[in-house]
From TrEMBL:
It comes from Leptospira interrogans serovar Grippotyphosa str. LT2186. Pfam families: Amidohydro_2. InterPro entries: Amidohydro-rel, Metal_Hydrolase. Residues 5-95 form the Amidohydrolase-related domain. This is Amidohydrolase domain protein. Keywords: Hydrolase. GO terms for molecular function: hydrolase activity.
Length: 97
C-alpha cells in the first residue's frame, strides 16, 4: 500500500483494476509519519478484494504480531479482515479454502 505513501499508491487501484496491494509497513508505527493509520481503513473498505496482508517477515524491524494485532483491532468488518488475511491471497494463487 506504499508504506508512507499510502494515499498516492491507493490512487493506482482506481487506474489499474487488476492491481493488488499488501499491508506491509502500513499498520505499524515504525515509520512514524504522524498520520493516523485508521484513516487508511477507508481504502481497505473500498477495495476489500484487492488488499492482501503483507509482512515482509523476517526482514522487519518489529515483531510480526504487531501489524497483525493492529489490523485485527481495527473497526473493519470480520468479512474484510478474512479477505485481507486469507481469502484474497488464496484466490490469487488458486488455492481453495
Amino acid at each position: 500500500m506504499g508504506a508512507s505513501e499510502v494515499w498516492e499508491y491507493s490512487e493506482l487501484l482506481e487506474i489499474y483494476p487488476e492491481l493488488r496491494m499488501d499491508t506491509t509497513m502500513v499498520f505499524v508505527d515504525f515509520l512514524a509519519t504522524g498520520e493516523n493509520t485508521n484513516s487508511y481503513l477507508e481504502i481497505l473498505e473500498h477495495y476489500p478484494d484487492r488488499i492482501h496482508f503483507g509482512s515482509d517477515f523476517p526482514n522487519i524491524p518489529y515483531a510480526l504480531s504487531h501489524p497483525i494485532c493492529n489490523l485485527l483491532n481495527t473497526s473493519l468488518s470480520e468479512e474484510i479482515k478474512r479477505k485481507i488475511f486469507l481469502e484474497n491471497s488464496a484466490k490469487l494463487f488458486g488455492i481453495s479454502i
